[in-house]
TrEMBL record:
It comes from the Bacteria. Residues 11-125, 139-254 form the VOC domain. Pfam families: Glyoxalase, Glyoxalase_6. This is VOC domain-containing protein. InterPro entries: Anthracycline_SecMetBiosynth, Glyas_Bleomycin-R_OHBP_Dase, Glyas_Fos-R_dOase_dom, Glyoxalase_6, VOC_core. Signal peptide: none annotated. It comes from Wenjunlia tyrosinilytica.
Length: 258
């Protein structure tokens, strides 16, 4: 069931992708998830809002020419004051790489990395709160930090955003759920030495789909590459895909109930 979300301070509130070929990225994600696109703030470069049934579900923008940085989805966390949060990030051992700066009248933002090197964003909403729909196929489902050891990096996010950490028992991995006001809003998975060296710690974006297998097949037809084949989990059938420019994301099909 879809949900129009009012997120508390610190919760993931939007996801954004900067690419080298914006029209090609719009074509890929539009045909995969049924997104439509409308112009967004242009003061930082070409940028579009991805819409699903009129609701904003993501943002896509063009990388500045000459910037040799990886193409990757970025998770943004809501804040009432981006400048104050940027200071908390620095004080807690993180690094602020961009901003804080205004995105026209939409809001104020910053891009940072935690002490392990995982990149994330901070969003202070003004006229646009960010992603306002979850749960429907094609919309944001979950955000998960993939890192080596969650038992210390979760302290950084608790200090900056006020998360409460809840450990999850698993025989295969170390996992922590991050809660705000008693609600699970994100997770951290520790893979130890199994963490891919070519990616390092990173935030993974999960999009809801009707059928994981069908979505994976469709992504392949559109030029994407499967890096983790569909498999069942306690949270639903999921898989990980890399888009034609190399940005990884996951799709998850919620478990069906009788």
């Amino acid at each position: 069931m879809s949900e129009v979300v009012a997120r508390p301070q610190g919760a993931p509130c939007r996801v954004s992708l900067l690419v080298r070929n914006l029209p090609a990225a719009q074509d890929f994600y539009g045909r995969l998830f049924g997104w439509e696109f409308r112009p967004g703030p242009q003061n930082l470069g070409p940028y579009t809002r991805a819409l699903l049934d009129g609701h904003q579900v993501a943002g896509l923008g063009a990388l500045p020419e000459g910037r040799a940085i990886p193409v990757a989805w970025t998770t943004y966390f809501s804040t009432e004051n981006a400048d104050r949060t940027a200071e908390h990030i620095r004080e807690s051992g993180g690094t602020v790489a961009v901003g804080p700066l205004d995105a026209d009248a939409a809001g104020r933002m910053a891009v940072a990395s935690d002490p392990s090197g995982a990149v994330f964003g901070v969003w202070e909403p003004h006229h646009h709160p960010g992603t306002d729909l979850t749960g429907d196929p094609g919309s944001l489902a979950w955000n998960e930090l993939i890192t080596r050891d969650p038992t210390w990096v979760d302290k950084f996010y608790a200090a900056v955003f006020g998360f409460t950490s809840v450990e999850v028992e698993s025989p295969f991995e170390s996992r922590v759920l991050l809660e705000l006001e008693g609600r699970q809003v994100a997770g951290i998975t520790g893979l130890g030495d199994e963490l891919p060296r070519d990616r390092g710690p990173h935030w993974m974006t999960y999009f809801a789909v009707e059928s994981t297998d069908a979505s994976v097949a469709r992504a392949g037809e559109l030029g994407g590459t499967v890096v983790r084949e569909p498999q069942d989990s306690a949270y639903g059938r999921q898989a990980t895909v890399v888009d034609p420019e190399g940005a990884a994301f996951s799709v998850i099909e919620a478990p069906r109930t009788a």
